[in-house]
Amino acid sequence: MTKRVEDYELFPEDEGSEKNKILWDKWRARWKSKNKNLFEIDPSAALAELQNYMDDKRRRKLKQVDDRIEHDEFEAAGKLGELDEDNFFHPKNQVGGASYDSVETEVKNGGMKINMRPQLAVNIMKVEFPEEITTELNDHVDTVIIPNNKDFSKGLVGQINRNDKSKQLTFPHEDDNVGLMFSGVLESLARQYIQSTLHKDCTPSVDSMWTVHSYEGDYNPLHDHGTKSDMGLSCIFYMKVPEQISELGDPDEEFEGLNHASGATDGFTYFQWGLNGHRDVNMLRPVTESYVKPVVGTLIMFPSWLRHSVNPFFGEGERRTFSANVSINPIEKV
User: Fold this and answer.
1) In what order do the strands lie in the sheet with 113-119?
2) Less CB within 10 Å around the terminal CB: N or C of the chain?
């Protein structure tokens, strides 16, 4: 039987589990903190604005749940082309348009900016999420994922152990409402990736999701990922970035290598798909490596075979990322 909105316990805020009440309290407290001055000037008006904010959040959450159910029903029936464009998970809203041919596009309702960045031998998708989505995911991690403390370290190569708060935690994607909805977003993006690179349709399926909480001295050695299917995609979503990393220059704009650049890539993600480096371009050799500066709200998606690492950083603050592996099952032969 298809689940409807009333079957989900996240809404409304005054019902459901204690975990969900904590989430609503967290959102309410965050709004109060951001609008502290309004409470000092006119408390009554501030309370009215707060109620409007919470009502709007509830409506949007309810719509997302209903839209996911409706999308899945249309997809199962092979009628996605008939899905109303007002649906949050409609391809035009979720992954940049029905044609999937544009290199860069601003998403209509989801607010995501998607950019395919072809490199020699590899394609990397860059997605910029609106601040609200990043904030809500961080809230969920703070109030649910971290307290649950389901350690994923044994399944990962990351050397994340330099601080008491250094962790690699499981982010459920099947028995968690937020995880279920975000996995749907990732599967839509994976479908967009395959459409843009192979011009073929596929059935993507999230294998696993987790968060990495890094502090001074933590790092991730060079590695790749595996998926349940032969063809797979992985992603990294930057959720929190310490100030000292944010202040570093962007290697996409100007980077000639590590000589005379001490600390220039601290906390950056490093990709490698060959033996040549940035200096080789001067000898007409193709560059087969890339440094990615972590930017809050940015997600990068890439083939699971692509080797990558994370450099250590120094100083205060948490470098928080979300990662996932997605199996890709082409509908037609590649």
Assistant:
1) 104-106, 113-119, 122-128, 298-303, 231-240, 319-330, 202-214, 167-170
2) N
Compute the half-sphere exposure of residue 90: CA atoms within 13 Å on the CB side of its CA.
Answer: 16
Tokens of 32: 């109060």
Go through the chain and tell me how many residues it has.
Answer: 334
Tokens of 239: 């959720």
- Between 260 and 172, name the one with better pLDDT: 172
Write the CA distances from 265 to 215, 249, 275, integer angstroms: 15, 9, 19
Give whole-number Cα distances, 111 to 36, 95, 103, 115, 155, in Å. 27, 10, 16, 13, 33
Q: What's the pLDDT tens digit per position in 93-102?
A: 543 333 333 3
- The answer for residues whose C-beta is within 8 angstroms of residue 52's C-beta and 6 or more apart is none
Helices (H), the chain: 18-34, 36-41, 43-76, 91-94, 131-140, 146-148, 177-198, 243-246
- pTM of structure: 0.70
Summarised one tens digit per residue, pLDDT across range 22-48 is: 767 777 887 887 788 888 888 888 888
Beta bridge partners of 252: none
Q: With contact defined as beta carbons under 8 Å apart, do 307 and 273 qualify?
A: yes
Range name among 55-59, 73-77, 221-225 with the lowest pLDDT average: 55-59
**Alpha carbons 129 and 147: distance in angstroms, whole number:** 25
Other residues' Cβ atoms within 10 Å of the Cβ of residue 254: 7
For residue 1, give both structure tokens.
């039987």
CB 223 within 8 A of CB 323: no
Beta bridge partners of residue 208, listed in sequence order: 325
